Amino acid sequence: MLILGARLAPSALRLILHATAAGPARSRALAAWSAVGAAAGATGFLTGGLLTTVLGWPSVFWVNAPVAALLFVGVALVVREEPEPHRAERLDALGAVLLVAAAMPVIAGTTLLEAQATQPQGVGLILLSLVIAGLLAWRLRRARAPLVPRDAFRDTNLRRGSVQSFLNTATTSSSSVLATLVLQDRLGIPALLSGLVLMAFSLAVIVGSVATGQIAPRLGPDRLAAVGAATIACGNAVLAVLGHSWPWIAAGVAVIGLGLAAASVAATGLGISVPAALAGSAAGIVNTGAQLGTAIGTALIILIATASTPSVGWAVAAGIALICAGWSRLRRQSAATT
After folding, report:
1. With CB atoms counted within 10 Å of each terminal CB, which end of the chain scores lower, N or C?
2. How much is the average pLDDT of 264-268?
3. pLDDT band at 241, cuts 50/70/90?
């Protein structure tokens, strides 16, 4: 399921690139894409809480089967034209395996660091991840058709967009997961009601995405990214100071959602502003950055919160987002148009 999901997100983004020209139209399309994703997230929070309450947690996984079937039918009926349909590229299977093998140990290792008894195993997994990352770097340099094209490493827009995507999800997904734990474990709120509280995040992303589609062309990717990251920092600060009751948690995640709407459009738009030959790879790389940010950021922030308090975890996320805002704003205004 994870592998299929990893293929779907870049493919959807590639179709958006193919269907829209660079400029305001693409900015609005990316904003709509973010809004649709947020709407799905809002539905997921509510549906997940309802299914968990009524049928138990395994039902959350079973419900994906009919949804996937409907998606297959919808794509078959709607998508009539593919970008570059006659171009076939070899997949660097070894590179893909090394990428997954490098990411998973660091995520698992960070989780094991929470308990003193499993800390040695956690440190060992993190060191293993570093070794595999070295092998991945070697593979990317030596492969005939590397998983990441060599020109991608030299593209400034793609590098910056990928880093911003990583930091965006690292400081938002982690905060939402921590909010879930606080709502259910500390405040004793049932799964269904917790899902309703956290819907504030997804609904705010929808509202923010609509607004972002209008202002993105005027602000440009750098200022938009800075505004979005600064708003994410503010939302995390609200949670760090006042996240002891569900109304303030709802308010905090809503502010984070508004920030993510702007930051994700800026990062994605910047990351895919590349030469046509790199467009397909850029969609996958930007999405990979976001997924790694979710996994690694969540593991790190939960580790910090477990070792101290949830407020400290949210404060760290706020600090990271604030650094990202400063870095985005101080960078030279990108010449790319989103």
Report:
1. N
2. 88
3. very high
pLDDT the model gives residue 337: 41
Alpha-carbon torsion angle 260, 243, 322, 153, nearest 10 = -50
- The more confident residue out of 245 and 117 is 245
**Beta-carbon neighbour count of residue 18 at 10 Å?**
13
Cβ atoms of 301 and 110 within 8 Å: the answer is: no
Structure tokens belonging to residue 43: 């539905």
Q: What are the respective helix, strand and coil percentages of the chain, to the nearest 5?
A: 85, 0, 15
| Residue 122 contacts residue 111 (beta carbons within 8 Å) | yes
pLDDT at residue 84 tops 70: no
Ordered alpha helix ranges (H), 92-244: 93-112, 119-142, 150-154, 156-170, 173-181, 191-242
Contacts made by residues 44-51, CB under 8 angstroms, sequence distance 24+: 45/195, 45/196, 45/198, 45/199, 45/201, 45/202, 46/192, 46/195, 46/196, 46/199, 47/195, 48/191, 48/195, 49/190, 49/191, 49/192, 49/193, 49/194, 49/195, 49/196, 50/192, 50/195
Question: How sure is the predictor about 2, in pLDDT bands with cuts at 50, 70 and 90?
Answer: very low
Cα within 13 Å of Cα(308), Cβ side: 12
Structural domain spans, the chain: 2-90+153-330, 92-146
Q: pLDDT tens digits, residue range 23-57?
A: 677 667 777 766 676 566 556 666 777 777 777 77
First vs last C-alpha separation in the chain: 31
Count the Cβ atoms, other than its own, within 10 Å of residue 234: 18
Looking at every residue in the chain, the average pLDDT score rounds to 82
Class of the domain covering 2-90+153-330: mainly alpha
- Of residues 272, 257, 225, 290, the one with CA closest to residue 23: 272
